[in-house]
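Worked Example 4.2. Consider the chain below.
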Amino acid sequence: MFSCGFTWPAQDAHLLAPLAPALGAASAVALEPFLLDPHNLRIKWPNDLMLGSGKVAGLLAQSVLSGRHMHLVLGMGINLSGQACLSQTLKRDIADIATQLRSNTTAQDLVCALALAWQHTIDAVARDGFVAYHDVYAKRDYLAGRRIQVTQHGQVLGQGQALGLDEAAQLRVLTDAGIKMFDIGDVSVRLSTTQDDS
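Applying the procedure from the previous section yields the following C-alpha cells:
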C-alpha cells in the first residue's frame, strides 16, 4: 500500500468524478510494461484493476478544499502475493501480481511508475477532462459487454449489460427500461449472478 499527495485547482472540482476512471486507466498503462502478459490487466469501473477474474489492485482518492486549491491524496493497495490464501479468506476471486511480473521488477518500480502516471493524469484531466482517457479506458474495460448489477447501500439501482463509459466517465448500462447512466459515488458494481462467461 502507498499513497501520494497532489494539488488540484478548486475551480475544477466538478472534474473529480471523471478523474477516478482516468486514474484507473493511467494505472493500468503504467503497470503494463512490467507484466509478462499486459493484455490480461483490465479496469473495473471506476478504477479497480483486475488480472483475469480477480481484483489485483484498488485505488482510492480523497480530497480536501483549501483556499483556491484542493489537496488530493491518492492511495493504492496492490496484492503482491498470496492469491490462494486471499481468495479462500475473502471467498471471491483475488489475483496477485508477483507471478505476472517481469524478472527484476521491484515494488519501488511499480510505485514510481504509478506516481508519475497519476501526476500526468491529474494535469491532463484538469486541462481536458476525461476525453483523453476514454479510448484508453475502453480498450481495457473489464465490464464492457457483461451483465452487471449496480447497487447503493444494498439497494439495486439497475442491472443489465454494461456498455462502457461516456465521455464524462459515466457508466452506461442497457437495462430493461433502456440505457441508464451511473455516476461515481457510493455505488457498487458487480457481475450479475446470471452472468454467462462461456
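The chain has a mean pLDDT of 89. The first strand starts at residue 2 and ends at 9. Compare this with Example 4.1 before moving on.
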